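Predict fold of Cytidylate kinase; 230 aa.
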Amino acid sequence: MVVTIDGPAGAGKSSAARTLAERLGFAFLDTGGMYRAVAFAALERGVELTDAEGLLRIAQGVAIESLDGRVVLDGLDVTRAVRTVRVTAATRHAADHPGVREHLVQMQRQTAEGRDLVTEGRDQSTVVFPDAQCKIFLTASERVRAERRFLDLSGRGERLSLDEVLRAQHQRDEEDFHRPTGGLIKAPDAIEVNTDGLSPEQVVERLMTLVSASRGPIVDEPRVGRPANK
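Predicted 3D structure, encoded as tokens:
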């Protein structure tokens, strides 16, 4: 079974999807981490982000795994490194590149083969897994999303004001909704969940209810071969 969670930046997709996967005993795929890994690799290797051919070579030449909350690039754990402001600003070059996107979409589909999966991003319901059994569009108000991002960055030692985070997020929203490749679109059959005023646990409970409705009763025990996280 594939559960897709799409939505704008700061809606809480990654944390909700990761916890949901743990509760279900599913694998968790963070597709944003894959694009971040490509951008990080380009920066580290001195490839110009505007070099379309060079960026595609990077994507095709590296091994990326973005499962269960870890991003691994060529065997190296870069989970924290790909979440910096520097890499975030560079990631759009990878995300907007049609060739890179096509390559990573194929990797995402291969990752789903033979496993139950919760996957999050912005085109999972519409492009990558259009036949997913359960599609969710997770969102929140612009201010709430910016506040969450601000707290996350502060916790990682990034020194930005809330207003700076809000401006950057507004620009990213505009870019995400108007991207010619892989733009953020709510699938017609996706169920929208607004997380304003909800605790992380309340969000996951709501998502569990939606998944349950799509596949029958769910017990809070792992139902696949992958062991639950302790």
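Strands lie at 2-6, 27-30, 64-67, 70-73, 76-77, 117-121, 134-139, 191-194.
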